[in-house]
Design a protein that fits this description.
The chain is about 30% helix and about 30% strand. The protein is of the alpha/beta class and about 325 residues long. The protein folds into two domains: about 130 residues, Rossmann fold (3-Layer(aba) Sandwich), CATH 3.40.50; about 180 residues, Dihydrodipicolinate Reductase, domain 2. The strands form two sheets. Strands 14-13-12-11-7-10-9-8-15 form a nine-stranded mixed β-sheet. Strand 2, helix 2 and strand 3 form a beta-alpha-beta unit. The N and C termini lie far apart (about 50 Å).
Amino acid sequence: MKHIPSPRVALVGCGRWGRNHARVLHELGALSAVCDADPEAGSWLAAQCPGVAFVSTPEALVHGQLDAVVIASPAVTHFQMAQRFLDLGLHVFVEKPLAMTVQEGLRLVQQAQVFGKVLQVGHILEYHPARGVIEGLLDEGRLGNLLSARMIRTNLGTIRGEEDVVYSFAPHDIAFALFLGNAMPCQVTATGADLFRRGLVDSAALGLQFPAGENTGGFQVQIHVSWMEPRKEHRSLLVGSRGMLEWVDSGTDRRLILTETETSRTPAGLPVVRALCVQELPVPAGEPLKVELQDFLHCILTRSRPKADGTSGLRVLRVLDAASRSLATGTTVELT
């Protein structure tokens, strides 16, 4: 069988999360070069990924023999970087968010389509091993009709200077919510707190109202994000007419807890919900980032469409934009 070489990929941005990309791409035999303005990143690269070229400016990558680029630079640079490398005829993986405005995101999606290039967005929860279990439970009807979901993503994390906590933390949960709702929300409401008086919210609550559908009778999602809480917590609770599912993904604490329920009515017509059984389900092993990047490399080789493509990134951007407008005006934003 003929050996098909891995695509040659450059990484732009070798900060804390970018180094995870570098490690995984190197393990996959795809990392050709890394670009970062910080010389310390070059020292780290030489020790962890020997033989991989290091450059300090994106312009230095133009002359390399590359097939694709992974962009893990600050969010405000995503659009400019992605546009530049798509113009050069490269496939592009860009960390979330895809861009900072809907207009920028749309231009990137259209550009990738015109050039016939893969455009993938870093919605890493789409590749989490727990997702297959969750999707299986939903397909089997174990939760019944979805009624609501609550998602929490907090940490005493790095406070950004360019984007607020909604753009930094919420894209993962918004992408998950769009999957669960199987549509765009019809209404978005957001409230937040600008704790440091910088004009950027540091803690926020988002409410997404989905239109009634065949299996979702007005499905509602609440998302809470904050980088000013003392512990890291990533947790989702799905509530359905036949059961509830809690997904905990906080560091090494990975759990899926299924609670099957029964609903009855009192003589006065009040609903009564009773837990029938509680079961902890095994979470399959696997590193989401590795699965995500494998999808990117596979789509480059096969000219196929990634699970988290540019269009999915654009949908998330539309919700982020609506949340920003809701924060600014104190009103609910209608989405068509």
